[in-house]
Amino acid sequence: MASKQSTVDKSKPINVSFSALMKMGLSSKTEWPDTEIFLDWIYWSRQIVGLFLGLIWGVIPLTGFIGLIAFGLCSSGYVYLYCTTHNIDDEEHGGIWEIVKEGFMTNFASFLVTWIITYSCMHFDESLTAQQL
How far apart are CA 69 and CA 75, in angstroms? Predict the structure, then answer.
């Protein structure tokens, strides 16, 4: 059986625009030409999910340790589910742990900023009223 030869030159970085990266990631039959492009998709999609969760957690209002744990589970679960539903070969990208932790800390930071700002804007008056009683 003949092995499939890669036509991608690994010495040159492949530049992909943000919109093209999003289209590739949202496609159900994506063939990732490079590991770095796939990890870029994970990073940026995770940023979008983190901002969305920060908005949701701030509006609900979800506070404390439960909000942090729920974010960690949702963020990591999202990446894991994406990899399993799209049949990603995790060993090709350094293992599932490497994929799941890709961009986690920056995602966590943007989530926290969004969560704190949203919560403060939506519920600041309620906390002042409760303190005055």
Answer: 10
